[in-house]
Amino acid sequence: MTNHAPAPPPLDVPIGSEDDLLAYMRSGEKPPERWLVGTEHEKIGLYAAERTPIPYDGERGIGAVLDRIARQDGWERIFEGENVIALAKDGASITLEPGGQLELSGAPLRTIHETCDEFHTHLALMKDVSDPLGIVWLGLGIHPLHTVDQLPSMPKDRYRIMREYLPTRGSMPLVMMFATATVQANFDFESEADMVEKMRVATSASPVVSAIFANSSVSEGAANGFVSRRLEAWHHTDPDRTGLLSMVFEPDFGFRRYIDWALGVPMFFIVRDGEYRPAGGRTFREFLTGGHGELRPTLADFDRHLTTLFPDVRLKRFIEVRGADAVPPGLTCSLPALWKGIFYEAGARRAAWELVSGASPDALDAARSDVARRGLSADFDGRPVLEVARDLLEIAREGLQRIAHAGSKDPDESRYLDPIAEQLALGASPGEVILRHWEADWKRSADRLIEYARY
Question: Taking Cα atoms as reference points, which of 159, 135, 131 lies closest to residue 55?
Fold first, then answer.
């Protein structure tokens, strides 16, 4: 099959009309033989001996970690002012999150074998770089010990503006920004119709997947009353730009509907010559129709605006599934495998839709809230989430087996789903397991939690 989608125009091109935005989104269409998977995972760091957060500055700070990675493994430094705020290499990047979390945005790769190898190579590099500095990195969805006020702020203007704006919109955005960590995966679509199918399946299945990966039950040194406090924090961040998008289920949903929604969301900032300028609550539609002072919008502005929208399933020139907490390494590789088995095999995608499509938007919101509190013990539209998760797992496994993307060591990608099977056999989310230990044999010991969760 030939890919008829045009190549994306340069991002510095001015936007003439909404049709330009439609063409930009459609330029993401790819035939199935070109579909790839990208995996992104964040890590929470601590000084191992002191059990304290890591500031940006200093000989043992986050800036020093980034510099060591660049020198040891040949990554290109990306600066904001005098500060290194990201690294890039071979289609991947390492970026700095607001509270000092580090995120690997992996290169788009064909197989889960490759993306899992990339992840473990990254973890080995992080250990080599961080051990001499006395730093550990944790596979948890939330910082386990410290309050937001105790966490450092990274030197990025983007986050300074968000920190000023978001508390006007919700009660927990600073928890989301500074204290949480996620694993997410990115997937391609062939056409608008294919995109719509995947957005609907992902939106409906997202609470179930969030339950499998719920892993943020201890924060500020205590059980916090949730299995995924990270998911709860997103619920109280900004109603304009977060949550489950019910519009994906409407008959006219497509690129234009998503663009229309994006245009109505207030902007955080406008960037010119590397300088971040607060947008003052102006929506992108207002920017498009009237400009902002002397500034007029470009495709780069719209592309950047899309990155400031935070639904559980996000559409750009690809689809991002964003509902999972950061987890231990085995489960990290399971996340892209689960979604690939569902998304990239038509029979599995239909079966997954049949499994979850009966839930209304209100039922999905209720399931999402219940999952935040109870993880795999929650309910999904009148059914135990655990049962739905088991069915979803088998659908994904069969999908991967039919796709049959061989790797150098093992022809079967479905083995990456085994950690999920083990989790479901326990009948509990990772955060539920941590709570059991926390209250029993760990005796609420932070040291025991850190040893359990460290990469």
Answer: 135
Query: Among 237, 239, 240, 256, which residue's Cα sits nearest to residue 248?
Result: 256
Report the distance separating Cα 345 and Cα 211, nearest Å: 23
Burial class from Cβ neighbours inside 10 Å (0-12, 13-18, 19+) for residue 182 reads buried
Cα–Cα distance, 331 to 433 (Å, whole number): 14
Q: What domains does the chain contain, in order, with CATH numbers?
A: 21-265+309-453 (3.30.590.20)
The DSSP annotation for 57-93 comes to: SSTTSHHHHHHHHHHHH-PEEEEETTEEEEEEETTEE
Reported as a single tens digit per residue, the pLDDT across 96-154 is 999 999 999 999 999 999 999 999 999 999 999 999 999 999 999 999 999 999 999 99
Q: What is the pLDDT of residues 33-79, one digit of tens each?
A: 999 999 999 999 999 999 999 999 999 999 999 999 999 999 999 99
Q: What is the pLDDT of residues 306-327, one digit of tens each?
A: 999 999 999 999 999 999 999 9
Query: Taking a C-beta distance cutoff of 8 angstroms, is the pair 388, 237 a contact?
Result: no
Q: Residue 30 is which amino acid?
A: K
In angstroms, how far is CA 349 from the centroid of its own chain? 21
- Hunting for tokens 């989104």 — which residue is that? 25
SS3 content of the chain, % helix, strand, coil (to 5): 50, 20, 35
